[in-house]
From TrEMBL, chain A:
<feature type="domain" description="ABC transmembrane type-1">
    <location>
        <begin position="208"/>
        <end position="414"/>
    </location>
</feature>
<dbReference type="GO" id="GO:0005886">
    <property type="term" value="C:plasma membrane"/>
</dbReference>
<dbReference type="InterPro" id="IPR035906">
    <property type="entry name" value="MetI-like_sf"/>
</dbReference>
<dbReference type="InterPro" id="IPR000515">
    <property type="entry name" value="MetI-like"/>
</dbReference>
<feature type="transmembrane region" description="Helical">
    <location>
        <begin position="294"/>
        <end position="315"/>
    </location>
</feature>
<feature type="transmembrane region" description="Helical">
    <location>
        <begin position="45"/>
        <end position="67"/>
    </location>
</feature>
<keyword id="KW-0813">Transport</keyword>
<keyword id="KW-0472">Membrane</keyword>
<feature type="transmembrane region" description="Helical">
    <location>
        <begin position="265"/>
        <end position="282"/>
    </location>
</feature>
Automatic annotation (TrEMBL), chain B:
<keyword id="KW-0574">Periplasm</keyword>
<dbReference type="Pfam" id="PF13416">
    <property type="entry name" value="SBP_bac_8"/>
</dbReference>
<feature type="signal peptide">
    <location>
        <begin position="1"/>
        <end position="26"/>
    </location>
</feature>
<keyword id="KW-0732">Signal</keyword>
<protein>
    <submittedName>
        <fullName>Spermidine/putrescine ABC transporter substrate-binding protein</fullName>
    </submittedName>
</protein>
<dbReference type="InterPro" id="IPR006059">
    <property type="entry name" value="SBP"/>
</dbReference>
Length: 426, 349
């Protein structure tokens, strides 16, 4: 590939004056350089390999596996092989032929024999409320075997109801869009189009909006509080700055649960904040700060403040005070100097701090659960409830997937506007 | 006599330990319960006497009653617990999802000896508790006559607390709207019935503070955050008896439920687990819990063994059984997930 053998090369990095050589050699030197760099990179990659493997095993693969549940749910397809076969020719409207009923009866019986009837019932119930008891009832009647299976199936009205068979049919496909659509308050309608769910069942779009609103409000609040504080810390003498930094960091080192519980004590109806407000005469009556949006934002702002402040502070520290003086000496008014000399330099720190806080806020769980009211629950609370209480991990995966996509998109936009290398994190 | 017996056990345990090597692990029974005053009561009534009698060490764990934790254990094949306490609706769910073992009642006690609905395929009843109304008479001058008075904001103004869960609240809403207790679940199975229940809840939505954990209602009453709250009767009675709280319980229109215990699939010591289940399902042992927390026994023949001073505080004491509803677990198995979603959507509106 090259005239210059790699062995003859005296470590390209050491000999930087190759540019003087003729173009052909320069090109091959550049190639050799790349190759040598590649070797270097390979070596550093090898050093980082244990970490990368650990990340892949403990982070990457589980996330992919869990998120894949949002679109891959083979429970019904696995449980109803004969029905899948029988429904292949069905046009999706009206009732399928008797063969499909018989296939379903056979599948139900084989599920009962394998002990998977309950799992099937639960999985169908997630898509069609009320299906659980109907499946179990039918299974019991089929087992009694005192009538031909077709008669049993036709005698249970559920199996001849209009909505039942389309759900079964959609369940026989292992790859499903059901959960992702549900996570956006959408569903397939009878004509094969996508429509909004009825308003009394629509919930997730609202919760996503609420999550973004709370995250934005908290980000703004931390910026308003954090920017002047960071400026103060950056401009006072070293000793005082150290004390202030510790004051900021002290709560940062406390567990988030403890801080949230502390806010519960402060914010409750007969708590310190209400006592103070009443004593000062600011409020005439005790305010409902607990279980409210405002209480949630106060507590989250307190917890997030260091995340916004520290990147800003780390940038401010590097700005020489002499630059502002130079601006004044050139005739700039204080605000102009601030806007045109100071702000552009701290901007990457501000963006980094805000981005960090905003993204962390999107995943808040404990604080909304303890301090927020019922209408202040964020998307993480719903994900947790689907994982822990409903045991519907498919739905949890779908919600997580959408949250992840939003977060990555947001991060991408920031990175695009600002350039990743300019983001200054602490 | 007793000492000799205990010594014998100790000796036997010691020998087993020496000869079998890992017998110390084999003779450990790991139980996960939902903590608080209820777990303390189980420890005194059942865990400690059982250990004393059999030499089997009980290792306790706590959780919030969320079956997701158990599912994760079963799915990954690493089940460090042998028994887990669960709510009735959760038993059904866990049974369906295949994460709880189907019980062999021949190793426990005859199934017909349990109150109806308290011996299920995957879970056996521990106690009966009531979803009741509690209030502080120092705050409310007039006593509520029924749980349904929680819907009366003109007579009882102020914040009231309810469990952040559709079960019980929807039943009470329908009853407050005039549906007879016997028809509640039939009405609730129809879309119109669900709408009707939510419409009734709408009338007090602005005044509701929601609770998640059983320990919260007494705290909410004590901090005067609310004037009345729905609660599990034992938690309130515990605050009255142990902390001297001035609370009162309203039993009229209570909803009766059962606490259950189950074996997770893949538990390492099923034999020990069955031994424990058989132990606590004896009528005289089953009745002992009532001495430590005011939850009633589930064995039909256990009533006569309940300590006389505990009896009047139990949810299934005759005085409290004038107007009540027994929670329908089959109904919640069918419609639970859908109603939870609808409930959450309603909360968010």
């Amino acid at each position: 590939m090259s005239a210059l053998e790699p062995t003859k090369l005296v470590r390209p990095r050491a000999s930087r004056d190759w540019s003087a050589a003729d173009p052909g050699t320069a090109k091959s030197v550049a190639a050799a350089l790349r190759r040598a760099d590649f070797g270097d990179r390979l070596r550093s990659l090898a050093l980082a390999a244990p970490l990368l493997v650990l990340l892949a095993l403990s982070f990457g693969i589980p996330i992919v596996l869990l998120l894949s549940r949002a679109v891959y749910d083979p429970t019904i397809a696995d449980a109803l092989p004969q029905t899948s076969q029988a429904l292949r020719g069905w046009n999706g409207t009206g009732l399928p032929d008797d063969a499909a009923f018989l296939a379903l009866a056979a599948d139900l019986r084989s599920n009962q024999a394998k002990g998977t009837a309950y799992e099937l019932a639960k999985s169908l119930n997630a898509r069609l409320p009320g299906a659980r008891s109907q499946v179990l009832k039918t299974v019991r009647q089929l087992e009694a075997a005192d009538r031909p299976p077709l008669e049993v199936m036709k005698a249970v009205p559920f199996w001849s109801a209009p909505g039942t068979w389309p759900v079964i049919e959609s369940g026989t496909h292992s790859v499903t869009s059901f959960y992702l659509l549900s996570a956006l308050d959408l569903r397939w309608n009878a004509d094969g189009g996508i429509e909004r769910v009825p308003p009394e069942q629509a919930i997730f779009v609202q919760v996503f909006m609420r999550t973004f609103f709370v995250a934005a409000a908290v980000t703004l609040a931390t910026l308003i509080l954090g920017f002047p504080l960071a400026y103060l810390i950056a401009s006072v003498p070293k000793g005082l700055a150290a004390i202030l930094i510790v004051a900021v960091l002290l709560p940062f080192w406390t567990s988030i649960l403890v801080r949230t519980a502390a806010w519960t004590v402060l914010l409750q109806k007969f708590g310190l904040v209400n006592d103070l407000l009443l004593w000062l005469g600011v409020a005439d009556d005790r305010l409902d700060l607990m279980y409210s949006r405002i209480g949630l934002i106060i507590a989250m702002t307190h917890i997030q403040l260091p995340f916004t402040l520290l990147p800003i502070y780390s940038v401010m520290r590097t700005i020489q005070p002499s630059q502002m003086k130079a601006a004044y000496s050139l005739g700039a008014k204080p605000f102009t100097a601030f806007r045109r000399v100071y702000l552009p330099q701290v901007f990457p720190g501000v963006m980094a701090g805000c981005l960090l806080t905003f993204i962390l806020c999107l995943g808040y769980y404990i604080t909304p659960a303890l301090i927020g009211g019922a209408s202040d629950q964020l998307i993480s609370n719903f994900i947790a409830s689907y994982v822990n209480v409903e045991l519907n991990w498919e739905m949890a995966a779908a919600l997580s997937f959408i949250l992840l996509v939003f977060t990555l998109a947001l991060f991408g936009i920031f990175a695009r506007i600002l350039g990743l290398d300019r983001l200054k994190l602490v | 006599m007793k000492i000799t017996k205990a010594r014998l056990f100790a000796f036997a345990a010691a020998t087993a330990f020496i000869t079998m090597g890992n017998a110390a692990f084999a003779d450990e029974l790991s139980i996960m319960a939902s903590g608080g005053a209820w777990q303390d009561a189980q420890r005194k009534a059942w865990f400690e006497p059982f250990s004393k009698e059999t030499g089997i060490k009980i290792v306790e764990q706590e959780y919030l009653g969320d079956l997701g934790k158990v599912k994760a254990m079963v799915d990954t094949g690493n089940v460090p617990i042998d028994l887990v306490t669960v709510e009735t609706a959760t038993v059904l769910q866990g049974c369906d999802a295949g994460i709880l073992e189907r019980l062999d009642y021949s190793k426990i006690a005859p199934r017909e000896k349990f109150i109806e609905g308290s011996a299920l395929d995957c879970g056996v009843g521990l106690d009966a508790y009531g979803d009741v109304l509690a209030y502080d008479p120092n705050v409310l001058k007039e006593a509520p006559a029924s749980v349904l008075d929680i819907f009366d904001t003109t007579k009882f103004p102020g914040k009231r607390a309810m469990r952040k869960f559709p079960a019980q609240n929807l039943e009470w809403a329908l009853m407050a709207d005039g549906v007879a207790a016997a028809d509640v679940y039939e009405v609730l199975a129809t879309p119109e019935g669900v709408n009707r229940a939510f419409k009734k809840l709408d009338t007090i939505k602005q005044d509701i503070v929601w609770w998640d954990a059983g320990a919260q209602p007494p705290q909410l009453l004590a901090s005067k955050e609310v004037v009345m709250t729905t609660a599990w009767n034992g938690r309130i009675q515990n605050a009255i008896d142990k902390d001297g709280a001035p609370f009162k319980i309203v039993w009229n229109n209570q909803i009766l439920e059962y606490d259950m215990i189950a074996i997770p699939k893949g538990a390492k010591n099923p034999d020990l687990a069955y031994k424990y289940l058989a132990y606590i399902s004896q009528p005289e042992i089953n009745a002992k819990l009532a001495s430590y927390i005011t939850y009633g026994p589930v064995r039909i023949d256990a009533a006569s063994f309940v300590a006389p001073d505990a009896l009047p505080k139990l949810p299934n004491a005759p005085d409290h059984m004038t107007a009540y509803l027994v929670a329908d677990t089959e109904f919640w198995g069918d419609y639970g997930e859908d109603l939870v979603k609808r409930f959450n959507a309603w909360l968010a509106q």
